[in-house]
Batch of 2 targets.
Target 1
Amino acid sequence: MKIVMLGAPGAGKGTQAQMIADKYNIPHISTGDIFRFNIKNGTALGKEAKSYMDEGKLVPDELTVRMLLDRVSDEDCRDGYILDGFPRTIPQAYALTGELGKTGDKIDFAIDVDVPDENIVRRMGGRRACQSCGSTYHVEYAKPRQEGVCDRCGGKLVLRDDDKPETVSRRLEVYHEQTQPLIDYYKKANVLHSVDGTCDINVVFADIVKILEG
Ligand code: AP5
Ligand code: MG
Ligand code: ZN
């Protein structure tokens, strides 16, 4: 099962992708998390990505596509995976479709988590992310068992550098310009499904499971 999560920044892609990955035992691949991991470890890739991310812009396609295709060629991806934050531009979608097509493969489900911009701005200020594993929490809607500590790995929970209100608005603009067209792209490929992302986290999850289990 190969799944793509679509949706604005803060729509809940990461939250849902993690729950799906746990339920179906497939890897959760977030390009944003991979970039943040590289930034934290001071790699060359991290240094390059950071300058774009801090401004709320997209990291160039060339770099992102190479990194993602490399990741999905790993052994643990053989039986499927869930992509969170990729593709994010039409050229990225073409690159993925083309690569999968080489072996007659394709994306089975593209799930659009739909949340209006007004709700997003409110959500972002309360988000906390694990510095070590990328898991996401919310001070009100998704509290960790112990404040400031990741339930999954014990890592420290921090506010992301790109969650400042100015950067969030820039990310939303970029989303509408460059990523929203992917909804049509996957609609044409007959794999698009939408869920109402303003509902409670567990309700959104149940809706997605219904889609995946047809
Ligand atoms: P990325 O890390 O992908 O960020 P994003 O798309 O902006 O999305 P977020 O992670 O901010 O939100 P999310 O949808 O995962 O929501 P979450 O589950 O956390 O990318 C960051 C940057 O990296 C990009 O700006 C770009 O520079 C670069 N990048 C990454 N991929 C790239 C690519 N392919 N090409 C080029 N550049 C790329 O939820 C948000 C909050 O809401 C949380 O606190 C959560 O607990 C809470 N929440 C979730 N669901 C609900 C709910 N139903 N009700 C209430 N609260 C909820
Ligand atoms: Mg995310
Ligand atoms: Zn963690």
Target 2
Amino acid sequence: MIDDVDSAVAEIRRRSSHAPAVGVVLGSGLGAFADAIEEPVEIPYGDIPGWPVATALGHAGALVLGSLAGVPIAAMKGRAHLYEGLPAPRVVFGIRVLGRLGVDTLVLTNACGAIDTSFSPGELVAISDHLNLQGTSPLVGPNEDALGPRFPDMTNAYDPTLRADARAAAARIGLELREGVYAAWLGPAFETPAEIRMLRALGADLVGMSTVPEVLAARHMGIRCLALSCVTNMAAGILPEPLDADHVLRVGGQAAGALTDLLRELVPTLTA
Ligand code: HPA
């Protein structure tokens, strides 16, 4: 596995001499941030050996290397999800490539449903912790000692300093950034209302189908993580109407402006 990761790293280095310090994962409908990257080198996932080509709606599928206010970054436009049928280690292939490229700080974005009814569609929320309810982990199997330890600590998986940086950046541009616990659901079906009641009882504020495998792989490698979630809808059963994937994408697209503004304010402050 590590040889596949390093082959991808070699191909990326052949195409660009950028040495990214910060990685950004752009979720459904949230790809607009990549347009703000200076001197971009865009590499379609299909050109990178071993990189899974994203099939999810609203995911473009390319790695963009460049910089933002002098900070070298690598942005993944589109990600793989477990619900696509990929094994968990394949889902996190790109994260491991970013880590081997030298990324030590990772900002993940996603779209989510709100379980906590004090959140509203369109709002950005920093994830403070997670519940892994996807039934698997990318770390299952023989441990790759070159990447990290067998039993990585997940106490501060969502780095408190990065969360404070994100709150400060949000305040500078007049945005409130509250925090919540994110439950990772396998999907691809949205949750039932009963499942949402269960998730609420378990302590979840938000629910989505991504991010957690990536955070597990990143923490395994010692990469600091921040995850910013865009609430696209109230979770199933909270409102009288059914959930609609097109609506989720549309709201994600509408919130992309605020998220892009926040990332542009935040990322230049993130060199560890
Ligand atoms: N559930 C799961 N994933 C999601 C949701 C949701 O309600 N909204 C956006 N992604």
